[in-house]
Amino acid sequence: MQPVVETLSGLERRVELSIALADIEKEVQAELKRAARKAKAPGFRPGKVPMSILERSHAPGIRYDVINSKVGQAFEAAVDAAKLRVAGMPSLEPKTDGDDKDTLAFVATFEVYPEVTVPEIGGLKVTRTVSNVGDAEIERTVEILRKQRARYETSADRAAQDGDRVILDFAGTIDGVAFEGGQAQDFPFVLGQGRMLPEFETAVRGLKAGESKVFPLDFPADYGSAEVAGKQAEFTITVKEVAEAQLPELDSEFAKQLGQADGDIDKLRADIRENIEREAKSRSLMRTKGSVMDALAGAATFDIPRALVDRETQDRVAAAREELKQRGLPNAESIDIPKDAFAAEAERRVRLGLLVSELVKAENLKAAPEQVRARIEEFAQSYEQPEQVVAYYLADRQRRAEIEAIVLEDNVVDFVLNKADVTEEDVPFEKLMGSN
Known about the structure:
With 436 residues, the chain is α+β, with helices and mostly antiparallel strands. Helix content is 47%, strand content 22%. The longest helix is centred in the middle third of the chain and has 35 residues, at 265-299. It is elongated, with a radius of gyration of 33 Å.
């Protein structure tokens, strides 16, 4: 008689499984006979160990494996008969009441995948990001490249201003007590780049080498260090050096330093335009994709299996721990990382993943081989030897699968954009480049 799968609530199901003890013992004995052919024991030749000795040494482990296998087979048969897709691993408990002594009985509790209904795409509101790259953006990028290669000329009489490199000593206290990270000697930074808090940079502006200042500084409430966040400190600074930036000339030598072999400034500008247009396109697509995925996630109202959310949460925690290890945190393996911090994002990712999967299947949006190759070739253009990058990705199945996943998402985005209520947003290039 086929076991009946019982619905508990939502996606949770339960089924009772029974296994005949005679079937278990029959298979255990068969396994013991196979093991006996090669079994070794002190005082016996290989293959001549008495079955009674094998029973004591091998039977418990074999019986455990056989029971697990039989339970697994019974569970698969039950869910296959009920035409269910199981999400995650079932929870198995022995059933001891009301069963035949000749059988082992178990209760399996598990979750199933939900019935995913694709929402009406035409009713979704999404934003398509566009950004224009003009001559002003090219020249601004050129100036940034020049500043990155600036040399600094020290001047004893120069009052510090934005763009200057300043070297100073500083010491901070809170309620008269020094705090960790509040002191430094010969500390260099470029004024106006936002590396220091605004009040700190304001205090430095106008000072010359040898001059000092005492000033209050209010740490923001969300400052990275909890020890000082939201508190007011008093800083004493002494400027040791002020150096004015000397930008390199925009000439052939500068072009060669940036990889333009001919030293042609016009060709350099063309290369810069190509690079930042590619970057602007990539970031625009990412913002657009984010809007599409947000809209899809917001329209997905079906239940999701807790098991999948738990697994996704564990993956997020593992990724966070790995990032801490990469940053050199000594106790990254043991530090407590609260799972609750990832719960909302995990639920969103699971729900969105199920919906996107259903949409891909319903609309046949799979990544075509020619799409994958085109995306790899586009990606490779940012490298010095793109043909080698293309060959590497095409030869490596895992890397190719990563690109296939990106192309699949692109296909979903294009499909939604063709049907949804789309608003176009023109984002200034500087704002776009400042976004993550």
